[in-house]
Amino acid sequence: MDIYFEGRTVLVTGAARGIGRGIVEGFASRGAKVYATDILEAELAELKASSRVARGGEIAVRRLNVTDPDDVSTCIRDMEAESGGFDVLVHVAGGVRGQARKPVEQVTPHEWDDIYDVNVRGAFLVARAVVPGMKARRSGKIVMISSGAGLGISLTGIQAYASAKAGQLGLMQQLGYELGPFGINVNAIAPGFLRTSPDYERQWASYGPEGQKAMIESIPLRRLGEPQDIAHAVLFLASDYASWITGQVLPVSGGPN
User: Fold this and answer.
1) Which of the residues are catalytic?
2) Residue 138 DSSP symbol
């Protein structure tokens, strides 16, 4: 199976590090022109400078705040004018926004909204912006990076994160139903725990050696995931091999646990 994206244009949000970076590199090494977007401009520049491209692939970087509707509309309009439109959208932007576990009665509305804004509102705003172009071409692939937290209990213990990731899956399923008649596939990946950001490194450290050992032993494949594990699943869902798959969530977590 040779999955490649020569002649296709891909938009990745939350692209500067971790899972997003792995996805950008996966597409660019298989011939796609990838617009890597994030609010972390220095890390975007490093990504562009150091990533390997192949088969005519290319990486362009743009600052994009997915929670700002004006920024989303303007930035995506400019990128579409430059590129001719997007064949694939991968929404990665999200996470716990620097928050930590606390009792629900201590959670502020601002803390709740901050997590919802990037994980759910961001997914909605970016999808809303790219869908008209995909509809016009009657073709497109949208992949949302959710979490195992969206399918059950979150290891973070953060109520808003578990709820937002479940909400993201609801959005994905509804869009899959709505956009299918236009030839647009909408799916999601639910990763297991990865050490891909400072927030998750702090979470990992909080377990201590015994807790870390117990987590790995609870995973049937006996290892933590890497960004490439998630990227490979995204590449499949964005490819022609997944043309009859929509409204689905694929757990990528090393096995049921």
Assistant:
1) 161
2) T
